[in-house]
Amino acid sequence: MSLVDVTRKDFTAARRSRALWAVATLLGLLTAFIAFGFSGYRMSPTETVQQLFRTMGGVLALLVPIVALVASYMSIAGERESGGVKFLLGLPNSRRDVFLGKLVSRLTIVGAGVSFMFATATAMAVARNGVLPLGALAGIFAVTLVYAAVFVGIAVALSAMVAERSRAIAAAVGSYFMLVLLYVIPGVNVALLIRFVHQRMLGFEPNFDLYNAVLYTSPLIAYRKAMNLAVPSGMERQVLQRPTEEYALPGYLGDEISLLVFAVWLGVPLAIGYLRFDGADL
After folding, report:
1. Per the count of CB atoms within 10 A, which of 50, 57, 96, 145 is most buried?
2. Which superkingdom heads the taxonomic lineage of this protein's source (predicted)?
3. What gap in Å lies between CA 86 and CA 47, rounded to an integer?
């Protein structure tokens, strides 16, 4: 066997999962429902569809990580728990073949799921409005695929570090809480915690650039910033904090930096996960 064989075998096994099919179907129906119910106030049909997908991005920011984590959290941990990894490595395959094969397989599966969600929403939006703003849609779709790939990479990396189902579940749930929920829960989110520690506990003057820089380390915030790169001018949204409307964010907090944040979250966890898997006692 080889990297291609590992990928094909894992993809065939994963696509038979009823849980994945159920999640993909439910989310496809959800995006179709959002597209059916959305209407732009005093907007042209093209602007309505563009605004629909811009709004849908806020929903996908919360849902796409769930899809990626559910599809990937047992990718390697399941093989280790069942003993199947020894069979894979005895064919022979290298640990790199197994790791990369699982990664490519899960990226393909999640990419197909995201494509299905966009397809259902696009079909409904075109049916209702009669237009297809291909440029904005393609940009939002591409950004969402990268966002999904980040969480697939995180899930596969975490799965490579553990050998039990319970730990894989705990790692997946913990990563979703730390990287997504902790940035959106009112009253206890990261923005408030940073300000509390910096101003109340340490006694420093407010520093919004510092707060924003810490916030920008989240893939969720990076996704919201990257959406501004994909939508037409005038539909950009303010993501980071500003003390006044006239305040200009420094260059290192610009929308383009979101691509660097994605690259770091995609590369670093995978490197750590592979090194841990390569040195693990299987």
Report:
1. 50
2. Archaea
3. 54
CB atoms within 10 A of CB 55: 15
Residue ranges in the chain assigned as alpha helix (H): 3-14, 18-37, 45-72, 77-82, 84-89, 95-129, 134-161, 165-179, 190-195, 208-215, 219-230, 257-278
Tell me which residue of 52, 27, 63 sits closest to 231, measured CA to CA: 52
Query: Does the pLDDT of residue 5 top 80, yes or no?
Result: no
Sign of CA dihedral 44, 223, 274, 175: negative
State the pLDDT at residue 282. Answer: 66
Cα 97 versus chain centre, distance: 24
Residue 104 belongs to what domain range?
3-278
Vertex 265, ends 261 and 270: CA angle to 5°?
Answer: 155
Q: Rounded mean pLDDT of the chain?
A: 86
Q: Please report, as a single letter, which amino acid is at residue 154.
A: I
Tell me the C-alpha distance between 213 and 198, whole Å. Answer: 13
Domains contained in the chain, number:
1
Global pTM value: 0.91
Q: Can you tell me whether residue 6 is helix, strand or coil?
A: helix
The DSSP call for residue 185 is S
Confidence of residue 82 (pLDDT cuts 50, 70, 90): confident
Q: pLDDT tens digit string along 156-167? A: 999 999 988 899
